[in-house]
Amino acid sequence: MVPDRLPSAGLSDCLVGRAREMAVLKRSAEAARRGQAGLVTLQGPPGIGKTSLLHSFIASDACREMTVLHGACSEIDAGAGYGGVRALFRSLGLSAEDAAFSPLLSGGARRALPALATGSGSSAYESSAAYSVMHGLYWLTANLMAERPLLLALDDVHWCDERSLAWIDFLLRRSEEMPLLVVLAQRDEAVPLASALADVAARPSSAFLELSPLSRQDVVELVGYAYQGAAESTFVRDVAALPGGNPMLLKRLLLELKSAGVRPDEHGVNRAREIAGQVVSDSVRGMLRALPEWIRTLARAAAVLGDAPAERLGALAGLPPTLVDEGVKVLRKAEILAPDGLGLAHDLVRSAVLEDMDGDALAELRTSAALLLSDESLPPEQVANQLLLLPRLTAPWMTAVLCEAAGQAESRAAPEAAVRYLTRAREADPDSLALRLQLARCVSQTEPAEAVRQLQAVLESPLDVRTRAGVAVQFGGVCLLAQQSPAAVRVLEEVLQQLDCELGRDPGPADVELRTEVQAALLRAGADEKSTIGQVRERASSMPAPPGDTTAQRQLLAMQALLGALGGDDVEGCIDKARRAIRATGSPTEESLFASSFTLSLADEAEEALEALDRLLQASQRSAAAWSYVLALAIRAFVLHGIGALPEALADAQTSVGIIADERWGHTSAMPQIALAMVLTDLGEPQRAASVLDAIERPNLDRLVTEYPWYAQVAARTRWSLGDVEGGLELLYACGRSLDESGVANPVYLPWWLDAAGMLMDLGRTGQARGLAEHGSELAERWGTPRAKALASLGGGLTTPGPKGIELLVASAEMFAGSPARGEHARAEFLVGRALLAEGDRRSARDHLRTAADLAQRCGTFKLGEMARTLLIEAGGRMRKMSGSPLGMLTGMERKVADLAAAGTSNRGIAEALFVTVRTVETHLTSAYRKLGVTSRADLAPVLSAREDLVKKLPLRAAYPPARR
């Protein structure tokens, strides 16, 4: 048997005993070339041959038709943000200043630049967000896979940073049917730097290869290769036993034996035993002792700097170029340096080279290395990586470099790396307020509860009132992430009181803006949970409405509008504030758009609400802000449902749920699932709706102002549709209690009382039903919009017998006709027709039932439409059996894809817009073609435009004119 690979470089490159592992790798490569993505993890102790196997596989015919990106992580650069990614993509040259013009970075792939940049220019990407960068890296790999199958091989991943591993996981979750193979190699005894490695390795479709010690036959081959001939069996047996079958240790032992002139016979066994104790360190130390001091110095420089240019090695070692070149040749021949670079051959060799240096000398050498890198104007992260290895920081410039490195890591959207730098910097300067705040900001992105603890400690320290106010604003935002908003409300209330005392009656512009920031933060934090919303709503009502000229003012306006709308008071004032929050000079923030769109929808200004949400969706697509996009889709689904556009609402809700299904943070959401369940129930699919609701895992759902009552009402309607009236009623009362605890009194926002009144009437409990209808009527009188009054009249009609009840139902239908609530209008017309038919007025009933059926069909609520048609025929009318639009056969994602394709968007553009893969787009588009009976994009537009666009053709505006300032 011939060794797998016998290169001329030396014994270190000889690969034996890995035929089984190589076969697995080659099968995985073949599957990747067929379009089946895979992950292979190589694991074993140091020196077991992971790197040799990886190199041999890359050089084999199996990878010849693939694009191969190969990199290795190192202890020197351990944890640098996206360091593993840069190691993989280094050969593509995408870290240069002109990389943005590379075809590989076209479209969404351009967002990968912050991760790839190596120079100080990476700090220019100040708005980078983690999802955006990973999204860009995904599209970069998609561009590569469009040309050839792709192999990503990353060695020593136990040194890999969190962001790179998170991206590999992100990539694999989106690449199941793509020509991709990822191979990772790691030590089994090393504790990974990043916990994300366990998530990647645990993927169910991955292959795991534990490299075992070499067999006796493998050792025979290795000894034969080393000595170019046969070896005696006793020599082979004893040599194999000494390093435990570890290939690297065996090779180093054989190299030492050959250098000492030991023959592979029984006489050589004793000599082998003598030198085999600590074979690598002894061998390396022995070789270095036989070399001149200047070569030993060069080896130490290489151990500290890693694979660095020769000029840098020489500068650190204090050697001229000629001696560096000569020393490199000597160290390569001794297999201390790697054959293909200026780094050391292995981490074990690095340890052996530095072993004889005392701690102070090594620290001095690392400090010199850091200064050298800084003098060369290399990125702060690269300098800081040397400082992280020091036992202590001894000079102010070290802290400054670490802070710069943290800023660079933040600009890459690599908060874990920034935390590592800042934590070390704080050891030297524990009282620095700027350091503590920057550290808390970075920690909040991965561990918000820990960031809350850190900021609480800052707030407990002596601070002037203005500084304390700024910290409190940061604290408020972090508390929302950690679901600890009551703590934020307590702090912000206290700070606001202190500010009022400090600033007096005539504060300057900067102080006014600071107070506005605190006020806006207080309202945002307090509106999250039931225990605090009443307190901040009172605050909001007493605050003067600002003009909306600054970001803080717009945020304050939006929250004042929302809190006022939830309280059910002063509809015109709420509309005015919401409009100013999104129309004032400057770009409205995400928070302003969310809050204002919600307010406008409650005030019957559906068209403006949808415009605001469309702006938010477009901004989220541009910045690849997936969570904002998902939440905006879910809220738009609620608004569309409210105006009776059920197919459109279904498309938004299904798309939002489909996106979170691919995300690890999907379990923290509830709004997308609630929106989908709401639409499914109205479409006559309560069983599916119940399954969607059962899958919600949102923590502390019952504490939240918006999500829980919404969940309770939708779950109640689902139970009611499934025949569980008592269960539905119990959930509706829970919804009502939750709203009462929050002080929410808007009749349009979750009219649980109307649903409960209907259920009570089904159970024959008329008195209780009438009491709930009267409660709704009181709320509607205060809010006063056409929809609110129509809902109140509908409740009265449902619970009042005889002609008076019919009169109220007719009034309700008329009022709904003047509101955006087309679905409720259809329901009211149906109830009027049913009541008239029960009274024997068949002729009048037919008019209302026909209107109900027509409206229901236009809204897409075919269940209600069929019910109206059935009663219409019973009343003596005629109507064809309803046939659903072909669009009704499309899933939500298919509808979204078809709409974008009809508008001329490419498959790639659709994928980027919807945060999915091109393969997913192709699948949905093919399915849409089949369901709609078309064969091309050109055929889509006529079919899609055949459905009436409710948003444009129905009267969506209420009776209120635009408020004037």
From TrEMBL:
Keyword 4Fe-4S attributed: no
GO biological process: regulation of DNA-templated transcription
PROSITE patterns: HTH_LUXR_1, HTH_LUXR_2
SUPFAM superfamilies in the record: C-terminal effector domain of the bipartite response regulators (SSF46894), P-loop containing nucleoside triphosphate hydrolases (SSF52540), TPR-like (SSF48452)
InterPro entries: AAA_16, P-loop_NTPase, Sig_transdc_resp-reg_C-effctor, TPR-like_helical_dom_sf, Tscrpt_reg_LuxR_C, WH-like_DNA-bd_sf
Gene3D superfamilies in the cross-refs: Tetratricopeptide repeat domain, Winged helix-like DNA-binding domain superfamily/Winged helix DNA-binding domain
Listed GO CC annotations: cytoplasm
UniProt GO MF annotations: adenylate cyclase activity; ATP binding; DNA binding
Keyword Aminoacyl-tRNA synthetase among record annotations: no
UniProt-recorded name of the protein: LuxR family transcriptional regulator
